[in-house]
Specification:
CATH class of the largest domain: Alpha Beta
Low-confidence stretches: none
Strand order of the largest sheet: 6-2-1-7-8-10-9
Structural class: alpha/beta
Order of helices and strands: HHHHHEHEHEHEEHEHEHEEE
CATH topology of the largest domain: Rossmann fold
Bound molecules: S-adenosylmethionine
Shape: globular
Oligomer: single chain
Distance between the termini: 56 Å
Mean pLDDT: 94
Length: 282
């Protein structure tokens, strides 16, 4: 079937966008109807269905609906990311980590946990691992760093676990970093080294689901960058409350540079380190 000719009616668009919103918190405004149409057409073709209404019914009533919901989430999420994304913010991240370590004084924290919430294909948690190795490599410190990367899309998590990259996503990684933390494969790709991989675990977490979030324990720092832009106010609020609950007292939250908690939540204290705003759980 030529799926590019499929037409998504307003009525079915509403049913699909409401379903997607309920499952994931991702909000497709009317302006994004075309985007949804494009992203879902391929699934209709793969399943050999005739139109969007059939696809909606498949998602709702098919015995295979749970499998298809995973495919739906793979198809509708925007997974753009890269290594060392927003370096000024990551410099603040390193300063915050130093502060957390220093402020622990003699009661040295032995285990620092960092959560890359919505980690996409893994560049963010691996960047964190590299920054830790570059800045806190002394084993004498006795501190164990643990990085958790989670996402709602299985497809990106599979790719994150492989840890093989090429091209544009590595544009901010210097030759020195590539040489130190990656192994070049026979296909001229870069595979993240085990010393970074072994610091990181991955899991499927829907950020709007408090019970799923809770399973991962509590963290010193959460990076939730470039994800709440896809949510409406209600899902943003839910996500921020869930993150707040999973931060240790005194822990920090980093959002993407275009995101803020203004008019979303007053749970956190806005603290500024340099030009980068960040949020603290007091
Ligand atoms: C643009 S990427 C951001 C990746 C990375 N944090 C960064 O800033 O480079 C957004 C990610 O959010 C994920 N996402 C969307 N809705 C989600 C939800 N409800 N729970 C968890 N992850 C979600 C998407 O699958 C996608 O991989």
């Amino acid at each position: 079937m030529e799926y590019s000719n499929l037409n998504l009616s307003d009525d079915v668009f509403k049913k699909l966008k409401d379903m997607i919103y309920e499952i994931s918190g991702i909000f497709f405004s009317d302006q994004k109807k075309y985007l949804l149409e494009t992203r879902l057409s391929k699934r209709i073709s793969v399943l050999n269905l005739s139109n969007f209404e059939d696809y909606y019914n498949y998602l709702k009533y098919s015995p295979l609906k749970n499998t298809e919901i995973k495919e739906l989430l793979n198809s509708i999420t925007t997974n753009e990311t890269s290594f060392f994304r927003d370096m000024p913010q990551l410099e603040v991240f390193v300063d915050v980590l130093k502060q957390i370590i220093q402020s622990s004084g003699n009661n040295a924290i032995k285990n620092i946990r960092i959560w890359s919430a919505a980690c996409s294909t893994g560049e963010e948690p691996y960047t964190v691992g590299i920054l830790i190795k570059e800045n806190f490599s002394s084993p004498a410190s006795g501190i164990k760093f643990e990085i958790v990367g989670t996402d709602i899309s299985e497809k990106v998590l599979e790719s994150a676990k492989k840890g093989i990259y090429n091209g544009y996503t590595l544009r901010n990684a210097s030759q020195a970093i590539l040489g130190k933390y990656f192994v070049k494969t026979d296909d001229d790709e870069y595979k993240i080294k085990d010393e970074i991989k072994n610091m990181t675990t991955f899991g499927n977490v829907n950020l709007i689901d408090g019970n799923e979030v809770k399973k991962y324990g509590s963290f010193d720092i959460v990076l939730c960058r470039n994800v709440i832009i896809y949510f409406d106010a209600e899902s943003k609020k839910k996500t921020i409350e869930n993150i707040y609950e999973s931060l240790k007292p005194g822990g920090y939250l980093f959002l993407g540079h275009s995101e803020s908690l203004h008019s979303i939540s007053s749970l956190f204290k806005l603290v500024g380190l340099g030009k980068t705003p960040l949020y603290k759980k007091e």
